[in-house]
Design a protein that fits this description.
single chain; 512 residues; alpha/beta; seven-stranded mixed sheet; four-stranded antiparallel sheet; globular
Length: 512
Amino acid sequence: MGSIDTSPTAFAAFGDDTSFQPLNADDVRSYLHKSVDFIYDYYKSVESLPVLPSVEPGYLRRQLQSAPPTSSVPFDIAMKEVREAVVPGMTHWASPNFFAFFPSTNSAAAIAGDLIASAMNTVGFTWQANPAATEMEVLALDWLAQLLCLPASFMNRTAAGRGTGGGVILGTTSEAMLVTLVSARDAVLRRIGSDGVAGITKLTVYAADQTHSTFFKACRLAGFDPANIKSIPTGADTDYGLDPAKLLEIMKADVAAGLVPTYICITVGTTSSNAVDPVGAIADVAAMFNAWVHIDAAYAGSACICPEFRHHLDGVERVDSISMSPHKWLMTCLDCTCLWVRDAHRLTDSLETNPEYLKNDVTDSGAVTDLKDMQVGVGRRFRGLKLWMVMRTYGSAKLQEHIRSDVAMAKMFEDAVRADDRFEVVVPRNFALVCFRIKPQGAMTEQDTDKANHELMERLNRTGKAYLAHTAIGGKFVLRFAVGSSLQEERHVRSAWELIKKTTTEIIKGEM
């Protein structure tokens, strides 16, 4: 067996003044000052940058060396390459001319909170591993739950003490769906007395066909038979929301066939059209079969901090879990998806791990729930700080003002579309997304119309002055205009509308 060389020369490289010190305090200050200056310049100039870059796949490898460097360089060299190579290849989600997808909002408070959390670099898998990180996450989630008027049963802490429910901040909605699907699966398997997962082929899950595709992916990851993942058709008669009567009919037929209804995903604000599934009515159907009900309010949940939108969550007291993502519309940078459950034990029963090296007296006392036991992995970032910083810095009044401003701009755009007889609004606007299209003109067929709308989107995006995305609703090619980028003002929405009108005139006239 070898031994450690303790001769002075063996450690000389680490003991002199030129040794590698990646956390040298002076370097940290210098690098961060330069990074902050870069961020300041970026936000001041992003409006003038093309929203979509005009680069080809593989461009970055050609601009930066393909092999890892051996020698060090001044930090300024790396920053120069970021400016000259990285920025030109960015799709600028921060641009006020970004209207393609649900926003990826940000704020000074969130950036500061995320920076501090990253600098501390804690791994808060248990309460003991970082008490402040766990306590902060619990507090931030309870604050946000109160803003959403969630029942006390979803709280980590209530006026009476520790609650039965609880929450956790995850990276994405996909994770929230996955952990609740696994918990619902295990609970039903125990209930039907299945040996291991032998009975999983009987379990069924349900969602509207407008539900985000990540749900169906999560179902497969959780082991559900693809044949038992029921995508229920929707239509214009329900504004593309899930029909409770149709759901009940399908679930009854499944029970008659020997299947076991296990999980229903309700969406408040679907990605394609912002459709809202009726929470209370679906929860009533689910109760007949003792199925888990989850609300995916990833985008529109943020709007529900405003009293005028809270009715979309009516009936939430009868569901098992709900998730929403402040990184979409509540000024908190990625990644931040909040999940609340009515009974935290239903999650931990499926997700708990208890290796010897993580055992401690606080966990054993039952006074805390270790957040590692409410997620897929064990390690986790200090996500709670940035969410708390946003709520603490701005307060509920400013956050509500932010939501209402975006909704008002979306309504302004919707009114402009409705006033131009060349266009139509395809579905009612619920929040800050407008789904519209050029409608058939003269002898145009539906195929011609789809082609014209596709051409409109392509031309707009090529200009670099606006970025829109599309979806399919009722078999039609439809443009999505999503208001909500943190830097957006009315002038950006008006400018985009003028560009849309001008480009549409060119298309209808047949100009290339």
